[in-house]
Design a protein that fits this description.
This protein is 75% helix and 0% strand. The chain has one helix at residues 4-18.
C-alpha cells in the first residue's frame, strides 16, 4: 500500500497544478 505521505504529496502537486 502507498504511504500516506506519498498520497499527500501527490494531492499537493495536483492542487498546485490546478491552482496555477
Amino acid at each position: 500500500m502507498p504511504d500516506k505521505t506519498n498520497v499527500r504529496d501527490f494531492i499537493n502537486l495536483s492542487v498546485a497544478f490546478f491552482t496555477t
